[in-house]
Design goal:
Layout lengths: L10 H43 L40 H6 L4 H12 L7 H4 L7 H7 L12 H4 L24 E2 L5 H4 L7 H14 L22 E2 L7 E2 L5 H4 L7 H14 L16 H7 L3 E2 L1
Parallel strand pairs: 1-2, 3-4
GO cellular component, one term: type II protein secretion system complex
GO biological process, one term: protein secretion by the type II secretion system
InterPro entries: Endo/Exo/Phosphatase_dom_1, RuvA_2-like
């Protein structure tokens, strides 16, 4: 047989050779796996035996099992000792409140209460502070001092001569049929003397007067919702209307007037920008945003 013939096998020979090769590789792999596991197991058993034979520390009889009470694992800040001194909860600042032993969040609650308009009028009011314990309040109560500025005004005149029903009427006396009230000068007290006018409509009259800049005529009272008709005859207008400088005011200032809406104010500003200052309200007739009625009721309130 020639040497090169060794490189060529028939089909059956190649199958046998491949079987033995696979068997050899499988055997080597199995031996390697078993050998590695056994080694680790042996090492593990040795380690465990060594660990078992090694003498174990006895903590039951040593200080390590039960550390000394004097041992402090962490630094402990010294406790803050609250101070006691007179204070007014309406004016005390944060540093004073903290010195009294209050927590920062309690101080914030006091500041929010005062910012919302709350007033401590008596020491008992301070007890309502959210988060304040009874013990804290009992300790602080003797030091609470409320300034006279925050006491009810009635306490200032508690010893004065009492007011009787004979000296003050329960309701203001109403006007007679021939008496009249100036719409632009009367305050709410005088307005409530008009038959049909109570506190609600008196306040509405004054509020609308401020928005208008004064009443030009009494018929403007009809613009107040549900205004009582029987009261109209008791009013007169004495002048004093404040006028709008339409060539100087900006859009936001113009639209504040009840007779000028946003689109009308914008139309005035645009007209001034394109055509120059207004010299007459009739110039607004060219604008779609103004009707003849709008211009007529605006006349008493405009100046150029």
């Amino acid at each position: 047989m020639k040497p090169q013939d060794l490189l060529f096998f028939n089909r059956s020979d190649r199958g046998v050779l491949l079987f033995f090769l696979l068997l050899l590789v499988g055997g080597l792999a199995l031996m390697g796996w078993l050998g590695g596991g056994g080694g680790r197991g042996t090492a593990g058993s040795v380690d465990s035996t060594a660990a078992t034979d090694r003498p174990q520390p006895r903590f039951a009889d040593t200080d390590e099992a039960h550390p000394s009470k004097d041992y402090e694992p962490y630094a402990v800040a010294p406790a803050h000792v609250p101070e006691r001194f007179p204070f007014d909860p309406n004016t005390a600042d944060s540093s004073q409140l903290l010195r009294l032993g209050l927590q920062p969040w309690q101080v914030r609650n006091i500041y929010r209460y005062r910012a919302a308009g709350g007033i401590y009028r008596r020491p008992a009011d301070f007890a309502r502070l959210y988060g304040l314990t009874r013990r804290q309040y009992r300790e602080l109560e003797p030091y609470i001092r409320i300034s006279d500025d925050y006491l009810p005004a009635a306490t200032r005149y508690a010893t004065a001569t009492p007011v009787t029903a004979d000296t003050v009427r329960r309701h203001p006396a109403k006007l007679g049929p021939t008496e009249r009230v100036d719409l632009n000068a009367a305050d709410t007290t005088l307005l409530m003397r008009v038959p049909g006018i109570g506190p609600y409509f008196a306040a509405r009259i004054v509020n609308y007067r401020q928005r208008l800049g004064g009443y030009a005529h009494t018929e403007q009272l009809r613009e107040i919702d549900d205004f009582p008709e029987q009261a109209l005859g008791y009013f007169v207008t004495g002048g004093g209307v404040q006028r709008l400088k339409v060539n100087r005011l900006r859009l936001g200032e113009l639209r504040r007037h009840p007779y000028i809406n946003y689109y009308q104010a914008k139309a005035i500003v645009d007209y001034r920008r394109l055509h120059g200052p207004l010299t007459s309200l009739d110039q607004l007739r060219l604008l779609d945003d103004f009707t003849a009625a709008d211009i007529d009721r605006l006349r008493p309130y405009v100046e150029f």
